Structures are given as C-alpha cells and as structure tokens.
Amino acid sequence: MSKKQDKTQKAAIADLALDFSSGFKYEPAPESSSHVKLEKQYELFIDGKWVAPIDEKYFETTSPATEQVLSRIAEASAADVDKAVKAARNAYENVWSKISAKERGKYLFRIARIIQEKAREFAVIETMEGGKPIRESRDIDVPLAANHFFYYAGWADKLEYAFPGKKANSIGVAGQIIPWNFPLLMAAWKIAPALAAGNTVVLKPAETTSLTALKLAEVFQEAGLPAGVVNIVTGAGATGAAIVNHPDVNKIAFTGSTDVGKIIQKAIAGTNKKLTLELGGKAANIIFEDAAIDQAVEGIVNGIFFNQGHVCCAGSRLFVQEGVADKVIKKLKDRMKSLIVGDPMDKNTDIGAINSKEQLKKINDYLKIGVNEGAEIFQPACTLPKKGYFCAPTLFLHTSQSHRIVQEEIFGPVLAIQTFRTVEEVLEKANNTPYGLSAGVWTDKGSKIFNMTTKLKAGVVWANTYNKFDPASPFGGYKESGIGREGGLHGLLPYLSLS
Ligand code: ADP
Questions:
Q1: Position 17 pLDDT exceeds 60
Q2: Tell me: the pLDDT tens digits for 270-305?
Q3: CATH level 3 topology of 41-279+481-498
Q4: Which of 189, 207, 321, 474 has CA 20 to 30 A from 59's CA?
Q5: What number of helices (H) and strands (E) belong to the chain?
C-alpha cells in the first residue's frame, strides 16, 4: 500500500470512528404484522371449543408500545373454570389416560412442528402484546417453546424406563397459571411436560398477555388434540384463584410473583394437590478480575437490559472485583449508550416496551427510591417514544446491601452495582437475599467457577454466560424463589406419581 493510500484509509477510519462516537443511526427496520390475524374478540377455549364466558364479561388487551387496543378477551369466572376442569377431567378419564404413550408423543411432535410453521406469527403477536423486542421473541421465545414440545414429546414413550424399578403414573388434571414475561414459552414449559406425562390441563395466561396462549389453542385444534386435553381460561387473579381452589385439580403449577406464590401455597395447604412454584429472583452477576471483561460486560447487558429486565432470573445485582471496577463501569456505560430503546417491532431494538403502565410505575418508583437511598444513578441520554411505556436502561452505583434497590425485585432494566475484594466477601453479599433463583460468574479460572457454583445459593448458576436455556436442563430456585424444577427430566417429576 502506498503512503498516500495508507493516509486516505486512516482518514476514512478516523471518520468512521467519529461517526461511531456521535452515535450510529440505524434506519427503521420494522417487522411486518400484515401476516398476523387477530380476532376482535377471543372466547374461552374449553373442551376443544371456543365458548363465551357465562357472565359475558370481557376485558381489553393493549399493545404496551402503542397503547392501542389489540383485542377483547373473555374473563373466566369460577363457573367457567369449573366447566374447564370438568372438561379436563373427562378428557383425562376417557381419552388421554387411555391412549398409548407413543400416541401422546405424536401429538406433542405435531404441536411442536405447527409452532415452528407459525413461528413468525407467534413472534409478532408476542411482541405486539408483550412489548419485548421482536429479536427476542423471534430468536428465543418461539424457538424455545417449540423445542420444549419436541423435547417432552421424546419423553412420552420412555417414561417407563426413566425411573428404574418404579412405575410412572400420571396424576390427573393440572391447573397452570403463568405470568406475562414469557407468555408462550411459559405455556410450553407447563403444558408440554404435563401432557407427556399423561395429564390434562387447565391453563390461565396473565391478563396482559393472553393472545399467544389463545393462538396456541388454535394450534391444538389444528393438531387434532382430543377435546378437553388442554383448556385455556383467560382472566386475572380471581380466575387464577378459582383454578387453585378447585377441588378436582390434582396439581398446581404457578410462575409469578413471590407474593401470589405465598397466597397459593396457603390456599392449597392441607389438600392433596401437588405444587410447583417458580417465583421471583434478585440474581447476582459476579465479575472477577481475571474475567474476559468485554465478554462479561456483554453478558451483564444481556442479563438485565435486553428484554427490559422482565426476567425472573435477570442479573439485577452486579458485583465487580475492585481492581477492574472502573474499567467495567466505563465499558458498561459506553455499551448502555449504544442500546436502542424503542419500538419493539423494530429488528434493531434492544430494549422494548415495559409490559404495562402499572409495571412502569413500579419501576419508576424504584428509581426514585434508589436516588433517595443515596445511590448514584446513571442513564444514557436516549429519547423515549412519547406513546407507550418505556424506561431507559439504568445503573445504580455506590449501592449497599441494605438498599431496597439491592434487596427487592424490580423487574425492570435496572442494575445495582457493588464492588468486592475477596471470594468470601462476594459469596456473603451475593447470598444475602431472600431469593435463590439464579446467578452468574465471570472468571478465567475453572477452579473458581466450581468453588462459586457450589457455594452460591441459587438454583441455576451460569459461568461466563448468562440467561441460557435448554429444554433438557432443569430450571428453578429455592428460598423465596420457589419449589420444584421445570425442564429436563426433573420437570416431569411434578406431573407424575411414582409407584
Ligand atoms: P406478576 O407480578 O409477574 O404480574 P403475579 O403473581 O401478579 O405476577 O401474576 C402471575 C399470574 O398469577 C398471572 O396470571 C395472574 O393473573 C395470576 N394471579 C394473580 N393473583 C392470583 C391469585 N390470588 N391466585 C392465583 N393466580 C393469581
């Protein structure tokens, strides 16, 4: 290369660098919703049919990004729930427990394949109603949901070999209640193992995100799943409570807040119902001085900012070893400046809409609490859309163990940072929480990983990565984060009785 060429190239690179520092501007890249068909009104899915709620009550579901009404959803009363449980019981006694395990598996395979065929439609609806970036629903939620059906389809005819010396029996009707952060994926996590094990289901999605569960009901119809094997009842807390309190439900599986989990645990105490709870979390992400810092920073961003922090296992507490604290914080701030907050339907968006007005208020209240507690707040300059519910990614520096923003689950894109010097210190701090769902460790040393994973009180510990899921690996927490596991062989156990 001549000197002149070299100079020109250097100048071009310098220009690029200038461009970059002043902020890349991405052209809008919206995902089309023209292929999505939403009904004006959705009924309850009971006994394989769409039925109007007995009280004829409906509620509206809106897009959190545009505040537009998307559809009207039926609100199931206790009488509707009773109809759904009766349908599930009938299907259990007369159809589902009678067919062979191999046949059950075939239905599940069929459901998995149809979800894959409709993947784009599912992703778009999930994003329209839930507010999460289309990239997340397209690349994570929907493929994982299909994979759960594939995975448990494979187990159906192998149950008799899975527990040597024991017979695996189904348990009956499962009542399942799910939250709004992963609407389709949570439905798959719950329905697939229940059906593989030979049970029937009454499922209630969260009131702000009913649509993909209702679309899933359409998939069940297309797959020819026998009537009553899965029933979807929509509604809010009262509908959920009607499922929990129904005397003919054999098992409750709940994912949601620790407060509601405690109510459910009390409600079923003294009954024969089985229970699994997947509740809140306040995960610690721990960066040691010997970690690959750039990789760790990206993992931290993925763990708390992508998906708006709407993940129960979100890495909402960051512990950085003192020697690299300044470096990590600088890199984190720089990376936060490049995050795109806005239209979740845009393929470039990193942080979409907060799921509801109430949730946004809760997050904003915590931001005020953090400032009043004396922590230093950092938010990159970003213009939030005027309509819809949005929150800028937020760092809190100089936090301490006693701060509420360090102790309580915020469920938003808010990260509280502390520093540490020794392994003992960080273990003490990381475990000082009522929760025990997940944690992350970033280090170059395998021995340190093993040491940390055995001492961190969390159901899942990721090492040099974060928020990685696979249908074959169990997920769940202890302490106030829940009881039982979902995923893998462990995820089948709550749906079986072994004799
Ligand atoms: P989040 O804070 O994630 O919204 P919730 O625990 O409030 O969590 O909600 C999770 C799910 O539990 C939703 O489907 C909701 O409708 C349902 N739910 C709320 N209250 C009750 C209750 N008392 N009994 C059963 N289900 C409930």
A1: no
A2: 999 999 999 999 999 999 999 999 999 999 999 999
A3: Aldehyde Dehydrogenase; Chain A, domain 1 (3.40.605)
A4: 189
A5: 17, 20
Neighbours of 345 (CB within 10 A): 24
One fold for 41-279+481-498 and 284-470:
no
Res 7: pLDDT: 59
**In the chain, what is the straight-line distance between the N-terminal and C-terminal CA atoms, in Å?**
77
The pLDDT of residue 25 is 77
Query: Which residues neighbour 25 within 8 Å (Cβ) at sequence distance 6 or greater?
Result: none
Q: What is the pTM of this model?
A: 0.94
Q: How many A from CA of 51 to the centre of ligand 1?
A: 23
Superfamily covering domain 284-470: Aldehyde Dehydrogenase; Chain A, domain 2 (3.40.309.10)
* The ligand 1 atom nearest the CA atom of 255: 10
Q: What percent of the chain is modeled with pLDDT above 70?
A: 95
Residues with CB under 6 Å of ligand 1 are 177-180, 204, 206-207, 236-237, 240-241, 244, 256-257, 260, 263-264
**How far does residue 250's CA lie from ligand 1's centre (Å)?**
19
Mean pLDDT of the chain: 95
Residue nearest to atom 21 of ligand 1 (CA): 237
- The number of the ligand 1 atom at minimal distance from the alpha carbon of 267 is 24
Instruction: Compute, in angstroms, the gap from residue 184 CA to the centroid of ligand 1.
Output: 16
Helix (H) or strand (E) holding 278: strand 274-278
Query: Which tokens sit at 151?
Result: 């995975």
Tell me which of 177, 202, 480 to substitute to probe ligand 1's pocket, judged by most ligand atoms within 8 Å of the beta carbon.
Answer: 177
DSSP letter string over 69-117?
Answer: EEEEEE---HHHHHHHHHHHHHHIIIIITTS-HHHHHHHHHHHHHHHHH
Residue nearest to atom 4 of ligand 1 (CA): 179
Residue 23 · residue 55 · CB < 8 Å: no
Angle at 191 (CA atoms; ends 164, 203), nearest 5 degrees: 135
Average pLDDT in the 83-97 region?
A: 98
Residues 486-498 have a mean pLDDT of 96
Nearest CA to ligand 1 atom 17: 237
Beta bridge pairs of residue 438:
460
Give the closest residue (by CA) to ligand 1 atom 11: 179
Protein residue closest via CA to atom 26 of ligand 1: 240
Q: Which of 161, 11, 131, 114 has its CA nearest to residue 70?
A: 131
Would you kindly state where each structural domain of the chain is located, as residue ranges? 41-279+481-498, 284-470
Cα dihedral sign, 404-407-412-415: positive
- In whole angstroms, give the CA distance from residue 64 to residue 392: 15
